[in-house]
Specification:
Layout (H helix, E strand, L loop, with lengths): L7 H56 L3 E4 L5 E13 L4 E18 L2 E4 L2 E2 L6 E2 L4 E7 L2 E11 L4 E11 L6
Antiparallel strand pairs: 1-2, 2-3, 3-4, 4-5, 6-8, 7-8, 8-9
Length: 173
């Protein structure tokens, strides 16, 4: 007489097989979740650097610097707008406007902060590494400046670099 059903060994084998499949699935879900978190963090770092580039570009464009001066502290630079040419529509000429006092825009990277005119620029989801820096060099009448920010996230560090040049001008006579 033959009985229909499963033996205890078959049942234990099925439970063990189910356990292995379940643990492999849990590991795969964990790997996928961690990879997704890293991709999201990298995307956020890219977004923050794009927003920061736009902010710095806008500030510099609004000022229209003609020169610079050094700060009393390192990792700092002050851009100066001492003059500009303004079209005079009434007379049909271009007039020289000299600013006294000069207009300024100050950038500083210190103590894990980026300061623009002494106001801290807020970066979400990241901290700014103390290894971040602001450097500049002068060749003739050209100022080359570089802001290097290291954004520290939960999973990784992301380096953002902003490089520009400025042709230095003096007030025309």
């Amino acid at each position: 007489m033959r009985k229909h059903g499963m033996t205890m060994i078959e049942l234990l084998g099925a439970i063990v097989l189910f356990g292995i499949i379940l643990s492999l699935s849990a590991v795969m879900i964990s790997v996928i979740t961690n990879a997704n978190a890293k991709v999201i963090e990298q995307s956020r770092a890219s977004t923050e650097s794009t927003l920061l580039t736009a902010k710095i570009d806008r500030e510099l464009r609004d000022l229209g610097p003609t020169n610079y001066q050094t700060c009393l502290v390192s990792n700092c630079i002050v851009f100066i707008k001492a003059f500009e040419y303004v079209p005079n529509l009434d007379s049909g000429t271009i007039d020289l406007v000299v600013y006294d006092p000069v207009q300024t825009l100050r950038f500083e990277v210190s103590n894990g902060k980026l300061l623009i005119n002494d106001i801290e620029y807020s970066i979400q989801h990241f901290t700014i590494s103390p290894l971040s820096s602001l450097n500049y060099t002068i060749q003739g009448t050209t100022l080359t400046y570089s802001i290097t920010l290291i954004l520290t996230g939960e999973h990784n560090d992301y380096t953002f670099r902003y490089d520009k040049t400025l042709v230095l001008e003096t007030i025309p006579t």
